[in-house]
Amino acid sequence: MSAITADDATGHGRRPRADPPHRRKLAAVPDPEPQPIRRMPFVLLLVGILGVGMLGLLVLNTNLQGQTFQLRALNEQAQELANQRNQLQVQVDQLRTPAYLIGRAAKLGMVPNPSPAFVILPDGRIVGSPQAAAAGQLPEWMLKSAAQIQHDQETAAAEKKAADAARLAARTVTQQAAQDAADRAAAAKKDATDKASSTSTGPGGR
Q1: CB-based burial of residue 127 (10 Å sphere; 0-12 exposed, 13-18 middle, 19+ buried)?
Q2: Which of 84, 86, 113, 191 has the maximum number of C-beta atoms within 10 A of its C-beta?
């Protein structure tokens, strides 16, 4: 056995190990030269994307315009249907009026019963004395429609207004005639007084 020196124990004094003959030394790699960017494909790609976007926007705008026209046509159709519904509702209301129903019933030969009877439930008691209605018992106003009744009322109101105006005019004429007669009487009385005064102051009255 050989003794180990202090230099060998601490690592100092060791001889460097020789590299194997097959190992190469590392060297710095030079930076690669930048290759030129081909701009033509990139420009074509941008133009293609822009064209597709414009085409999609045009299609979307055309579709929106078509839907707008369709919505306007549907709104007009809905308005026409609403007006037609209102007209039909007015006709239904007119057909439901009592005057129209009475007129239709009269044309069918039906007459109202002036002596109706009522059955009281649940005991079945009859109140009233039922009698058959005659054909000539239908009042005249029941045979008229609502328009005819309104026309008759307006005519009666106009006639009453004309009669009131005529009475007022006659009263005015009477009052005017009375005033004229009073004025003439006062004038005659004044003339008589003047003549009497002139006679009393004449030669025979001195």
Answers
A1: exposed
A2: 113
Give the integer Cα–Cα distance in Å for 58 and 52: 10
Q: What is the CA radius of gyration of the chain?
A: 62
**Alpha-carbon gap, residue 99 to 85, rounded angstroms:** 23
Cβ(138)–Cβ(111) below 8 Å? yes
Task: Report the 10 Å Cβ neighbour count for 105.
Answer: 14
CA–CA distance, 91 with 99 (Å, rounded to integer): 14
Question: How do residues 72-111 score in pLDDT, each as one tens digit?
Answer: 999 999 999 999 999 999 999 988 888 888 778 878 877 7
Of 10, 195, 176, 66, nearest in space to 187 by CA: 195
- Dump pLDDT digits (tens) for 142-181: 556 667 777 888 888 888 888 888 888 887 877 777 777 7
Task: Find out whether 170 and 162 touch, Cβ atoms under 8 Å.
Answer: no
